[in-house]
Amino acid sequence: MDLSDRPWYDNEKKWVEMQPFLLSAGYKLRPRYDPNWFPSWKVPGAERTWQDDHLSSFKDNALDAIRIHDDIKVVLKRVETNSMELWIIKHLLRIHDPRNRTIPLFDVISVPPDGRYSLLVMPYTRRFDHPAFHCRAEFLEAMRQFLEGLQFMHDNNICHFDIAPQNLMMDESRVVPAGSHFYSQDTHIGVPGIFTWNHRCSVAPVNYYYIDFGLSKFYPQGRHAALNTGTLRTFKTIPELSLTVPYNPFKVDIFQLGLTMHKLIDTYPALKPFRSVADRMTSTDPNDRPEPFESLEELNSIAEQIPQQKLRAPIIEKTGTVSYLARSAMSMVRKDYPPARKYEDMGY
């Protein structure tokens, strides 16, 4: 299939090539990825207005699709069939444990012609911290699930090694019942306009998940004996990372989740009572960092000292944070109790 003269970006062309195969396998891509796609803005007489097909894929290895038999939105991720990532996800999902927060796997599709690559079919989810947290109880529920999930991984000798907000997800089905667009999750269908959602606490329980196990490793000797070398481009503040001096990678996981907690506390002043948990998780000395279950115990202990009414009272983002400023470009409406208030947002 010659796509050299067509309007797709290079990173999209592999999806266009796979579109007929995926359709036969029961998965429908957005119209933009149909080999016969004609841009809506090039239709004679059409006005240049925002349409779904304006939005390209921002990642060359992942794309949304519709599972045809039940009209469910899913995410397809392209990985090497023999990769550690695929092995780790399958391994974790075989373990039945209520603490397991690994993203579910609906299917694995072998990509023709040689099966070198496979597509992971996963539920459609959204980043865990958007829409904004409404109350302390919502923050607590998210952190509890992520700490439990991290302890589960570590108990099974899996180090994630890339814990960051973009790899921490939540099931949006109750929070955003109208759904959202994969490329522009602050819209329902990819077109700017009113975006509605429910507070997490009003539709609980909400499930949170870890995704992207591309850097993850299995240490059969156990987490206490594990050693690793190497640095991480996006985590320059983790003190022990070294190309030559071995360190325990499981302690890096704890630091990474602690960094995420710090970012949330910096964003929401009302979360300051939980700062001590994040401080211990990001201790300079890796040996001073607690196990995830110990951080969970400390988190719960602090929460028990806060009245329930206060845990469910609204909290607001600090003026001047990136998150707050991002919410200043597009009008948004929340549609549950308390009465809807307008917010402004421009994606992330």
Descriptive report:
GO terms for molecular function: ATP binding; protein kinase activity. InterPro entries: Kinase-like_dom_sf, Prot_kinase_dom, Tyr_kinase_AS. The protein is α+β, with helices and mostly antiparallel strands and 348 residues long. It folds into two domains: 10-123, 2-Layer Sandwich (Phosphorylase Kinase, domain 1); 126-344, Orthogonal Bundle (Transferase(Phosphotransferase), domain 1). 26% of the residues lie in helices and 17% in strands. The chain contains eight helices and 15 strands. It has helices spanning 13-24, 84-93, 136-155, 249-267, 275-281, 292-304, 308-311, 322-326; strands at residues 27-28, 62-67, 72-80, 107-110, 117-123, 126-127, 158-159, 168-170, 196-197, 208-210, 217-218, 228-230, 242-247, 331-334, 342-344. β4 (107-110) and β5 form a beta hairpin. Residues 324-348 have low confidence and may be disordered.
Key attributes of the depicted protein:
Phosphorylase Kinase, domain 1, globular, 348 residues, alpha+beta, 5-stranded antiparallel sheet, 8 helices
What does this entry show, briefly?
With 348 residues, the chain is α+β, with helices and mostly antiparallel strands. The protein has helices at residues 13-24, 84-93, 136-155, 249-267, 275-281, 292-304, 308-311, 322-326, and strands at residues 27-28, 62-67, 72-80, 107-110, 117-123, 126-127, 158-159, 168-170, 196-197, 208-210, 217-218, 228-230, 242-247, 331-334, 342-344. Strand 14 (331-334) and strand 15 (342-344) form a beta hairpin.
